[in-house]
Design a protein that fits this description.
The complex is a heterodimer of chains A (437) and B (180).
Chain A: H1 5-23, H2 40-55, E1 83-90, E2 104-111, E3 116-124, E4 127-131, E5 143-145, E6 158-162, E7 166-176, E8 194-201, E9 206-213, E10 216-221, E11 228-234, E12 246-251, E13 273-280, E14 283-288, E15 312-313, E16 319-324, H3 327-332, E17 340-347, E18 358-364, E19 373-377, E20 386-390, E21 405-411, E22 425-431
Parallel strand pairs in A: 15-22
Antiparallel strand pairs in A: 1-2, 2-3, 3-4, 3-6, 4-5, 7-8, 7-12, 8-11, 9-10, 9-13, 13-14, 16-17, 17-20, 18-19, 18-21, 21-22
Chain B: H1 7-13, H2 16-38, H3 42-58, H4 70-88, H5 94-99, H6 108-127, H7 131-142, H8 147-154, H9 158-178
Helix pairs in contact in B: 1-2, 2-3, 2-4, 3-4, 7-9, 8-9
The chains are: A mainly beta (437), B mainly alpha (180).
């Protein structure tokens, strides 16, 4: 008799908790809140400078080094790509900070990998950036420009990237006054430093957003053409239950009479947006509650955009070669020396021409309790091209990794093209034990 | 007479069996929430539920009972994972990978059968709640209506709605513990 899967899950969780207990610690690898070092001699100057930057007018603000891209220089054909020539637009939208000073703004960046990215920050002299306050940039009180190419692999800026075919509403991206996102773990800064940032692109039919403030509901028009909105609110309590928030992304309806189904999260605690008003031809209507217009918009059938198409097996050959790691790398990975990474090679059956589709690699061992790992190959690939990919983690052939199976998957661009007939594929499978050295 | 530990005490306990007990107590509610949000995809619901509890296990030291209940914390994780899965087009599995948890393979029809039985149990438990508590739990937890909206439509204060939700959840938990 087959066991109830929920009982199996309970047993799995208890076993995982036992392993965790045996190790005497947690396994989370998430970034901890970085301690905010206070340089005592700077404090007085910072108070003056930061005060000047935050509470005073925008004139006389000193500028500092630009916000760097921790992932290194971006590449046109990988990750999120780079901004297209002429593809960056700092919107005219300006939102006052609760303490005054430099306003907040947002920029839309179209990238070479087909993404539309939105950056949010403080604005000084028509440039987007961050302030050196609240522990950022050593509290130097200066304005630091945020380049339109700081997109990928950074947790140092408020960024959301979507496909052009999607609308989105990002709720509660908590930041501090600098414009730097606040990590969701570790010590929380005091409430007065925190800002609740909500922003989104609601599409060309959107007319206004209604959102909650401390003093009640407020309605603001959105940017024409893009439906861009930005809400900056103080955070009442630093200690409130904190979740990093999330974006609702939905395909923009091809049917001009139906707005995007963004009402899924409207009015939910943590999301200040309670309603969106649309103009659909002669009809002005809203989704959500509390908007001045009480006519509800027509709705399309809400579907979760998951591909229902079954994956098909292509059985393409995968070639694996073991590449020896240094003893230091092995030690850092808690593996015995020698340990190896795997150079994986396969011929791409489909092209990847933008960020909407990708190949992924899944590594799975057959031995009990072995972790499953995997990674995405986030770059453009030509059809028929021989892909060479070095594994991101190391393996020890003396451990159960000898039985490890690597599988390459292809995920088509069904998010960008929901009507696509392309099915997800399992390109091929290979065992690590059969790899050459 | 033994005193049952609260959800919050189980989460903060740090012992493996505590976490297992917390899962048994709370998963029907988290699953019901995910079902409402993720639609009729039992495999997807199971995937999201598994990652929700795996993430909670990894991060349980970060739970602060001063900031809210354990159920609210779990629902927050589930909500975030659901939104993230909609964005990425697949359910995250990083926590399960790190914890060495295998994906549970199960046929859809078998899962649907179990879901139907479990949903009936949950519905029976909900039906046993006083009407105002049932409405508060259904609207707040399962439909995710805002406290303010519920309060406005029911004609009471937000604080009263919060109390009804809290009491309703406690009653549901007691019911699930009594069910063999």
């Amino acid at each position: 008799m087959t066991r109830d899967p929920y009982s199996i899950l309970g047993a799995q969780l208890t076993a995982a908790a036992e392993r965790q207990e045996a190790r005497g610690g947690l396994t989370s690898r998430a970034r901890a809140w970085r301690p905010r070092r206070v340089n005592a001699p700077l404090v007085a100057a910072v108070v003056v400078l930061a005060g000047g930057a935050i509470a005073a007018a925008a004139t006389g603000v000193l500028t500092g080094s630009p916000v760097s891209n921790p992932a290194g220089p971006p590449v046109p054909q990988a990750g999120y790509g780079v901004p297209e020539a002429g593809g960056s637009d700092l919107l005219a939208l300006r939102v006052a900070d609760p303490e005054g000073g430099l306003p907040w703004g947002m920029r839309i960046v179209h990238t070479t990998r087909g993404l539309v990215c939105v950056q949010v920050g403080r604005v000084y002299r028509e440039q987007l950036g961050q302030l050196g306050v609240d522990g950022v940039f050593h509290d130097d009180g200066r304005f630091h420009r945020l380049g339109s190419n700081v997109l990928y692999g950074t947790s140092e800026a408020i960024i959301q990237c979507v496909l052009p075919s999607q609308s989105f509403s990002y709720e509660d991206a908590s930041a501090d006054r600098s414009g730097d996102p606040v990590p969701t773990e570790g010590v929380r800064p005091p409430a007065r430093e925190l800002r609740s940032i909500s922003f989104g692109l609601l599409g060309s039919h959107a007319a206004s957003v209604t959102y909650r403030t401390r003093s009640g509901l407020r309605t603001e028009p959105v940017s024409r053409g893009t439906g861009a909105y930005l809400i900056v609110e103080p955070v009442a309590q630093a200690g409130r239950q904190f979740e990093p928030g999330g974006a609702v992304l939905v395909p923009v309806s091809q049917h001009a009479a139906i707005p995007p189904a963004l009402d899924l999260r409207l009015g939910v605690e943590g999301n200040p947006v309670s309603a969106i008003t649309y103009r659909l031809g002669s009809l002005t209507c809203t989704t959500g509650f509390g908007a001045p217009v009480s006519t509800p918009c027509p709705t399309s059938r809400r579907t979760v955009p998951f591909s229902r198409k079954a994956a098909h097996y292509l059985n393409e050959p995968l070639h694996l070669t073991l590449v020896k790691d240094t003893p230091a790398v092995c030690r850092a990975a808690f593996l015995n020396d020698p340990c190896y990474r795997v150079l994986l090679q396969f011929k791409a059956p489909y092209a990847v021409t933008n960020a909407a589709s990708e190949y992924t690699v899944e590594a799975r061992a057959n031995c009990p309790n072995a972790p499953v790992s995997g990674w995405s190959i986030e770059r453009d690939i030509k059809r028929g091209q021989t892909v060479k990919e070095l594994s991101t983690s190391s393996f020890s052939p003396s451990a159960c990794a000898a039985t490890e199976t690597l599988q390459v998957h292809y995920q088509p661009a069904w998010l960008a093209e929901p009507q696509s007939t392309l099915r997800p594929s399992i390109v091929g499978t290979a065992r690590l034990g059969g790899a050459s050295r | 007479m033994s005193i049952e530990p609260s959800d919050e005490e189980l989460l903060a306990g740090g012992h493996a069996e505590d976490f297992g007990a917390l899962y048994e107590r709370t998963y029907p509610l988290i699953r019901a929430y995910l079902r409402r949000r993720a639609g009729a995809r039992p495999d997807l619901v199971l995937d999201l539920l598994a990652e929700t509890f795996a993430r909670a296990l990894e991060r349980r030291e970060q739970f602060d009972p001063q900031r809210g209940s354990a159920v609210a914390w779990l629902l927050g994780i589930a909500k975030h994972l659901l939104l993230d899965s909609m964005r990425r087009g697949r359910v995250a599995d990083e926590s399960r990978r790190r914890l060495g948890m295998e994906r549970i393979q199960v046929e859809d029809d078998q899962l649907e059968l179990i879901e139907r039985e479990s949903d009936s149990e949950l519905q029976r438990a909900l039906n046993r709640l006083p009407g105002e508590q049932r409405e508060a739990v259904e609207r707040r937890v399962l439909q995710e209506d805002a406290y303010a909206a519920i309060a406005e439509q029911v004609g009471c204060s937000e604080q009263v709605v919060r109390k009804r939700v809290s009491r309703g959840l406690s009653a549901l938990r007691r019911t699930s513990e009594e069910t063999p």
